[in-house]
Amino acid sequence: MVDNAGQPSVSVSDPEAATAFDVVVLGAGSGGYACALRAAQLGLRVALVEEDKLGGTCLHRGCIPTKALLHSAEVADAVTHSGAFGVLAALTGVDVPAVRAYRDGVVDRLFKGLTGLIKGRGITVVHGRGRLSGPRSVLVESADPEIAPVELTGGAVVVATGSVPRLIPGIEVDGEQMLTSDDAVALARIPVRAVVIGGGVIGCEFASMWRSLGAEVTVIEALPRLLPTEEPASSKVLERSFRKRGIAMKTGITVAGVDRVDAEASGTGPTDVRLRLSDGGELLADTVLIATGRAPRTDGIGLAEQGVILDRGFVLTDPLGRTGVEGLFAVGDIVPGLQLAHRGFAQGIVVAEVIAGQSPAPVRDELVPRVTYCVPEVASVGLTSQQAEERYGADAVLTLTYDLGGNGKSQILRTQGHALLVRRVDGPVVGIHLVGERVGELIGEAQLIVGWEAHPDDVAALIHAHPTQNEALGEAHLALAGKALHAHA
Ligand code: NAI
């Protein structure tokens, strides 16, 4: 139950063993392990409690395996469209076991690397399910009844238990045809006819991936557009592209119910799920993905009992991760805001530094970059035009859209899209919104521009390599600075 990870060994079956640490971290996902690594780096004695594998959702069920699958889908697209580049190739099939082996290879290598890193930093990993037994203590129970529970105490306890897929009341998930994203990422087949409920980040990524791998796909989104929290212009380009790719979309619609039909008897082909829609319509599918958000995993871990304030299951904290209960911190998806691995990671580092007595700057959600890795990619940082207008007044905000049609590399890649900048009049750029293939890789520059409160002139003065898609950011800022060379703005 306990790994000796280089520190004095702790055996939970040995009640005499040392169980006092400077920091006990509950949950070894991105937020938890980042906190543990930073705390150890700062010289603190750290215990990291995890009931599953080190790395959490991001490494085993989320970011990493889905992006590997999306890369296989991208390769399939490259083959399908190779003729447009003068290369004669045909997609004759997708070897699903080989795709899975590739995905697992990526995850395994990263998992080994992370395990080694944690061990190398002298962090004590305690395997089992942890629950707060006091504000500064965690009781860890093993799945193995032979192993006695152990109570770990810490100068501080950091809760980083993450999130789970949110389900729709009345709609059962079976892991075979009715899926959460956990099931979808592990699926051993490519759907024939898929319905994706929820046109947010997960919905758009799976819709895109399955379509590239040959499935018929329909996305159902309750709100009026896909990726409803992104800049409306990004959703528009994405929807146009999805439509061109043959992905059907039903927006402003929800699912009223799901029935099973006998596919053979009904002669509907490989479609034994019937979805009844809120507009009275129906859809048949062999695979349904429910991607309607993620819920915080905070039940049954003793938070309320210790006096922590919860709001619909989320832990309320101050900007430095403090829960209000002395010595008890929370990071990651259980804290209201963007549920992104890199946000949790950054919060984990901040909390470790606070515990070590440092004065780090808090994580500001609006400076956390966001990327949806579908085709085309959608990436953004900072405020949307609407948020900027609400904050500064409509007259105090300017937007500029630079079409990728004017960007050489985007033409070479045959991708369409744009860079949309939001700036305060006579002030800095406060939001950047990108859509187009590979634009996720441009978000690094965009986040520096917004994070460092650059003015268009500051960026316009910087030389961008030619031909790159980054040039689009350079040109957009030249245009916003009134110096457009290629008048696509
Ligand atoms: P989401 O909040 O991004 O999207 C859920 C969508 O479902 C929303 O657009 C919502 O309007 C819609 N919806 C809710 N109930 C519905 C219903 N009954 N019928 C139809 N539509 C309904 O959540 P999602 O996509 O499940 O992702 C969960 C979290 O994981 C997000 O916070 C996301 O940012 C994160 N994530 C991030 C990734 C990335 O950074 N690339 C990849 C995957 C997940």
Give an overview in words:
By secondary structure, the chain is an alpha/beta fold. It contains 14 helices and 25 strands. The strands form six sheets. Strands 1, 2, 3, 4, 5, 6, 7 and 20 form an eight-stranded mixed beta sheet that branches. Strand 10 (193-197), helix 6 and strand 11 form a beta-alpha-beta unit. Helix 1 runs parallel beside helix 9 (341-355), helix 3 (63-80) packs antiparallel against helix 4 and helix 3 packs parallel to helix 6. It is globular and about 65 Å long. The model is unreliable at 1-16 (pLDDT under 50). The protein binds 1,4-dihydronicotinamide adenine dinucleotide. 1,4-dihydronicotinamide adenine dinucleotide binds at residues 168, 197-203, 205, 220-223, 228, 254-255, 291-294, 339-340, 371-373.
